[in-house]
Specification:
The structure holds three protein chains of three kinds. In chain A, a hairpin with a 2-residue loop joins strand 4 and strand 5. Chain A has a single domain, classed as P-loop containing nucleotide triphosphate hydrolases (Rossmann fold, 3-Layer(aba) Sandwich). Chain A is of the alpha/beta class. Chain B has one domain: MetI-like fold (Orthogonal Bundle). Chain B is built from twelve helices and two strands. In chain B, strand 1 and strand 2 form a beta hairpin. Chain B is globular. By secondary structure, chain C is α/β, with parallel strands linked by helices. In chain C, about 30% of the residues lie in helices and about 25% in strands. Chain C has eleven helices and twelve strands. In chain C, the strands form two sheets. In chain C, strands 6-7-8-3-9-10-12-11 form an eight-stranded mixed beta sheet, with helices on both faces. The two termini of chain C are about 30 Å apart. Classes of the chains: A alpha/beta, B mainly alpha, C alpha/beta. At the B-C interface, loops of B face loops of C. Bound molecules: adenosine-5'-diphosphate (ADP) (2 copies), iron/sulfur cluster (SF4) and magnesium ion (MG) (2 copies). One magnesium ion binds next to helix 2 of chain A.
Chain lengths: ~325, ~325, ~325
Amino acid sequence: MTAPLLDVRNLSRDFDVSRPWLNRKLEGLEKVYLKAVQDVSFSVNRGETFALVGESGSGKSTIARLIVGLLTPSAGEIFFDGQSLAQGLSGAEARRLRRRFQMIFQDPLASLNPRWRVTDIIAEPLRVFEGGMPAPARRQRVGELLTLVGMAPEDGVKFPHQFSGGQRQRIAIARALAANPDFIVCDEPTSALDVSVQAQILNLMKKLQQEFGLTYVFISHNLQVVRHMANQIGVLYLGRLVEVGTPARLFEAPRHPYTRMLLDAVPDIEMTGRRRKKVEGEIPSPLSPPSGCPFHPRCPLANDRGRREMPLLLDGVACHAVEEGRTRP
Amino acid sequence: MSTLDISPAKPLPPPRPPSRLRRILDSDIFWSWTQSPVAVGATVVALTLILVALFAPLIAPYDPFNPATLTLMDGFTPPASKSAFSDNWFLMGADHQARDVLSTIMYGSRVSLFVGVMATLFAIVLGMGLGLAAGYSGGMVDAVIMRIADIQLSFPAILIALLIFGVAKGILPANQQESLAIWVLILAIGLANWAQFARTVRGATMVEREKDYVAAARIMGVHPVLILFRHILPNVLGPVLVIGTIGLALAIIEEATLSFLGVGVPPTQPSLGTLIRIGQQFMFSGEWWILFFPAVTLVLLALSVNLLGDWLRDALNPKLR
Amino acid sequence: MTEPLLSVRGLTVEFPTRHGILTAVEDISFDIMPGEVLGMVGESGAGKSMTGNAIIGLIEAPGRIARGEVWLNGQRIDSLPPEAMRAIRGRRIGMIFQDPLTSLNPLYRISDQLIETIRTHLPLSQDAARKRAIGLLDDVGIPDAARRIDDYPHQFSGGMRQRVVIALALCAEPDLVIADEPTTALDVSVQAQIIDVMKELCAERGAAILLVTHDMGVIAETADRVAVMYAGRLAEVGPVRDVILAARHPYTAGLMGAIPRLGENLVRLNQIPGAMPRLSAIPPGCPFNPRCPRVMDHCRSHRPALSPIEPARKVACWLYPEVTEA
Ligand SMILES: Nc1ncnc2c1ncn2[C@@H]1O[C@H](COP(=O)(O)OP(=O)(O)O)[C@@H](O)[C@H]1O
Ligand SMILES: Nc1ncnc2c1ncn2[C@@H]1O[C@H](COP(=O)(O)OP(=O)(O)O)[C@@H](O)[C@H]1O
Ligand code: SF4
Ligand SMILES: [Mg+2]
Ligand SMILES: [Mg+2]
């Protein structure tokens, strides 16, 4: 087996959400930190898709931003192709690594500069990474990329607002592919799209993955989409991984009570008449997370240990009940 | 691979974009302009005044600042009448020095517009630069720049312009004061007005900075200065254009006020404000035209530019469309 | 047979623009029976919200109802003066929108808003209205309702706020609730809770629901019947089970095929090519014809009308011989 392309080890990120200095002094408040991501570890194999799934606020986007370097970790390390990304990316080496990863965002309109023509948007990575490329060759390449994502080269002269949501996401994908990366972080790439358009984009992403051997970190809150795309899935709850596994294992035999609850909440589109168990409670505020296991206030299997002690991710699941072999309250 | 739905055909390079004029004529802004009688009227008035000012040396009936061409006896000729002493005819009358009021207005608007435009441009460049820097970098830079702006905004602009003007007068050697007066005026008005632009641009920059297209550029490692100028700047120009237009009207009025107070442009190069100051001496002695016509021109100029700014603000505001 | 509670006949909503008149909703007819849940589903821009807003008289100018009628309990309500319409909204038709803050004023306590709405519509004293409000909050599942009622909207989570909105919509015992994407902004687990609450409470009170959403899953869980919208028109109407398990209209079939399923692992999802047309470019004939896998020549020039093909089932597609021209 070859080494994984991306290796995330004990990644944590805190945000300082304190009131401004003066208010703190006047009101006698302490500094407040929000633990958005805590002690997250996973690795992604070449040519595969690792999916992160979780409800809003569970830390998915924060992990994505940490991986691509938009945020710096508070603790932990990220290795890309064996190299640590934390060791201050500098100079030529940084450029070489940077051109190998790209990101696709949730809102395709916000991720394209509204004042730029599509051609210029897609050509931006070429200008950054292949400065020597002559303009006609660049335009040729943009035409190829547009064709690759199912659009016409003539679309290059238009502005992003002249396209539908699905087409905008195609443009974002073309830009991501321009400099031939081998790794793409996709943060909810289809969450803003209608199902029929979502199907087009998911199919396109799968096709491109096969064609170019791309590796994806694919983030979504939609379990069906994740099931369709991923080779490995990590379930996040309050910034922690609670279960990791293959789709088959996770969906056919979910072990963590939270995974089970999530699966239970998915609407029954097959009309099997399956009776759902009622979902209990809501996600607590990440500013004052529960003691012990973060899921214990909502967990039917919680016991005293869960209130005191944080379960460790053992054999792909972080749950005391699974550890102790309990399946019933 | 048989499931692929897109065959990689031989792609063509994208064609050239349509011309800028075509785009302007097709745009929603242009259409909304044609739908607004106020905007069209204001544009016509403003354009006429600007063109007249621009081509004053070519179209003015007299050269009011060349003493050789003046016949002193023509002084105080009423509007639309021939002088009792020469063949000269004056549409808007002549002033106490026998200068044709219409011509002085044409030349005066030139000075007023020049000072207004230059001062506004100066304020825009300064305010936008500081606003971009404050909005993008945040932290200390932001705090310092914006506190200065706050302090400045809490004083009337005219007071600040007066102050700067006074300081400059004290610094400059006396023999250059006359020739440099107009530039000092531009500097003073520009410095009095930058804070508006800085505040607006900072706000817009902070909004744009968080957008994903900036994140995409940062992931590629694009230099922050390039991100600022190539990505963010074009997206904050809209509001700058709006307050720039309204700011131009303000600057013209501020210039007139300073000149009216006698601290503005030298009398050898009178602006609309200077003309009004001269005219108001004769208001009660019956020679009303010396004051009236420059004052009306100033009001028309400031009002039309201001109305254009108002319209532009509404037209660019997506909520009202 | 009972009379329908809501009856929409030939509803057409137009927007005059600089490029001509855009038809956002065209010739839509449907009924809702008392106590029934009708789901209205379609892609964004299909005209679902516009239909809901037209029914409650909330079309924003310059939009207007160009043709058609809306009947509530045998009373025609589309031509009522604004004050009469305002009395119907809230009293006889409750409303739930996607963003709870369209219904809740962030500056007022929950108690003030609930009590005011109750007293506007029902002859109750301040104390009685407050009791009723607490009871309602309890019903929608807000823990410790008696204390939380005096909180402000921002003190509630998104899911809790939507519960408050449901309480607000139900507080005058309306006959019909129009819910426009009530769960779209919420997470799946919260969505499931909100659907349960909404469904249970309406069933208890015998209120009918017009549930507008783009999410087939929500429809499958909630609705009795479903109306599928495409490009401002109805493509298919029928009992939810029939439509989901055996779609008749090629668009509905495509939509169902495009949804990834938990239970299966396909290499490739079924996809409908292209995108829904903009309002300014709706093609002649069947509006779906450029994307339809089963398109025939006839479809390109003749517009199919929503016609009954089976009992309780209507389709607008030329594949069915019963379908007539619009
Ligand atoms: N820049 C930030 N400052 C403070 N808090 C943040 C910031 N970014 C994210 N958070 C918080 O971190 C948590 C995780 O956020 P995010 O990663 O965006 O979650 P997700 O993408 O799963 O919805 C949330 O509680 C969010 O409020
Ligand atoms: N003020 C408006 N002017 C012109 N078109 C509008 C306006 N508001 C909405 N529309 C159009 O009406 C159509 C239907 O919108 P809507 O009912 O909101 O769709 P849905 O709720 O199904 O997503 C859309 O194509 C939208 O672009
Ligand atoms: S009418 Fe024709 S084009 Fe329209 S859905 Fe039916 S078969 Fe397809
Ligand atoms: Mg996110
Ligand atoms: Mg809608």
